[in-house]
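Quick entry, no commentary yet.
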Amino acid sequence: MSDELPIHCPACDAGYLLPAHLLGEQGARVRCPACQHGFAVTRSGTLITEPVVSSAAPLLAADDPQRLAEALLVELEARSPGAMQEAAGAGRLFALHGPALLEAYDEFRRRARSTPGSEAFREAVLARYNVDLFPVGPLR
């Protein structure tokens, strides 16, 4: 294998040279620096055609903010499989992943295009991690 592998973003067709040492045995998940689209490539540089959440999520936004929120959380979890569930179980979800969750929420607001409020995202976090973003009751 050469030192750099030519790849092209399937969303915007921007071309890049991906250093071969960044590829694992099964390839790599990459994010296009030009358009931020996430996609996966094999070790040989072939696009993996399984559905990628980041490309499907904008299509979900108009019809179902709840599914969009869930898709964004799945995408976020895919970056560190198991880490967020483990942190939630230990009561440290926000301590360890707060900035990433805020980025996911910002992305939710951007992709939804309308002003859906935070309810769908809040419900998705509650369902996935059993953590309520806005607990009801007085602070202790």
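second:
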Amino acid sequence: MKTLLLSVVISFCALFSAFSQNMQGIYANTWASSDRESLSYTLALNEDGTFTFESSRTYTGTPDLIAKAEGTWKQQGLLLELITEVGNEEANALAIELNNTKARFVSLSPRHPDFNLVKPSLEFTKSEVFYAQGMELLKQDTKVTSMD
């Protein structure tokens, strides 16, 4: 009986760990206007729990970095929280405003018929940065072409 119960618990844990979402990766989105101006936002969630957020503007083909912020991130289920060190003297205004920003990981179940049609994304639900509220960043493909 103990063996059966142990095997059921192990199977249950293995099943749910297979469906756990891996948030790490690069998320980005670009909004373009008809006059060749665009705004781009990129969020890199690193394996070591750090992140880099960059926003840039492109006008007449030349991209200009507007702001950059760094810090740590933590995952709680499908929720993401960005944490910046506010006491750091190198912290800029964007880093201070990004502190305690929250986003929700959006994806479909692998069993859903549209799984391959919908890209995973982060939808920002809480932020002091006015343009981040409700912003969606799409997860970029990270395909490895060579192992050497």
